[in-house]
Amino acid sequence: MSxxxxxxxxxxxxxxxxxxxxxxxxxxxxxxxxLGVIGCDDGILKLSxxxxxxxxxxxSRFSTEIISVINSYGxxxxxxxxxVYDCNNQDVVANSTDDQEDVKxxxxxxxxxxxxxxxxxxxxxxxxxxxxxxxxxxxxxxxPLFLYGGVGLGKTHLxxxxxxxxxxxxxxxxxxxxxxxxxxxLFIKSLRFKDTMSFKEMFRNVDILMIDDVQFIxxxxxxxxxxxxxxxxxVDNNRQIVLSADKSPSDLEGVEDRLKSRLxxxxxxxxxxxxxxxRLGILQAKSKQYKMSxxxxxxxxxAFKITSNIRELEGALNRVVAHVTLIGxxxxxxxxxxxxxxxxRSNEKFITVELIQRxxxxxxxxxxxxxxxxxxxxxxxxxxxxxxxxxxxxTTKSLADIGRSFGGRDHTTVVHAIxxxxxxxxxxxxxxxxxxxxxKSFEN
Length: 444
Ligand code: ADP
Ligand code: MG
Fold this sequence. Notes:
Distance between the termini: 34 Å
Helix content: 55-70%
Largest sheet: 5 strands, parallel
Bound molecules: adenosine-5'-diphosphate, magnesium ion
Structural class: alpha/beta
Number of helices: 21
Order of helices and strands: HHEEHEHHEHEHHEHEHEHHHHHHHHHHH
CATH superfamily of the largest domain: P-loop containing nucleotide triphosphate hydrolases
Shape: globular
């Protein structure tokens, strides 16, 4: 795959997500997720579809939306061209069931989600080590391995990586990766068609069963029951189970106590929110994959600003890269700022002037009322200047706004504070270290 194609593939997967809000999750699942991206040339986006039926439906119902979402990533698409290909389903891992259509969607794995492509850092090293252990072992290690953490932090990536690795190293083993939603859907469908036997068979013959996002099972009593049985059967037969969720087993809502406690029996590994170092590492790895040389200061800027999760971070990098590839402009921090203005705003929304003021006051043991008063004692003045500088760095507020929020001061006072702080940071190591600690405290 050329780096351009790789960028396009990445953009496409982002776009699929965006389209959910535009045309609804169901339509994306039913139609758009069936498409593949081939290339983009001369304003024509080439896609592939598994049948004429899908192609015609997509063209008549979603072309405008697809084009507008793709263009929001800096592309300049005017038309869609959808080719129909023969669906020869290479990614299927599961086998031995008649319900071909369902099997296909059970185990389609993302080619990019491998251990090699997973950047390891403090926040995820434990989960990574556990995943590797499970993937390499001949027999179940911890049953289950329960991965949990916030969205976009790499849980699905690790599960797919386990599957890829097992398929490479233990070719005979049967692996199933399935979302909890799909699991429920298949189960309910089997109830409706009075065919729970084949549902059970499908899962009972498996060496490694991975169920993603099990928080969705909460509240669904019959599915929980079935899940519990399947789970116990597999464990009794010495098969490995890997689960993921957005919460730890004990915090899962609407899940029966006995199931909760059973889920916590094995190894529970949480994926922590990202750190600056991990984010920078991921950006460096991705830009290397794209064979793009992106200036270090731009990567640092992105790692500093996009703190929400790795999915958004990748999205940000893709947009910047797309701009460069498609528009041919050099990347600078200013360009990145322009291209990502909406994303930067949404990542900032939790850092307010007030939050900064409160935290700085705590740090320097100064009263908030003093910070916004005319007082000029050294400790208070320093805290005020630090807070002003942080407001400039971490929010999108104008200098005038910042000044006003500090007891109605003028913007020139803010300019002066910023200059003074920059100078201080350069000259005073102790101060610089304090400042860094404070800045870091606003990440995530
Ligand atoms: P989750 O399942 O926790 O919501 P995903 O596994 O879908 O998150 O990850 C979101 C995106 O971030 C994916 O594209 C994934 O490849 C990427 N990603 C997550 N963690 C890492 C990592 N440590 N190194 C490289 N890419 C990562
Ligand atoms: Mg996931």
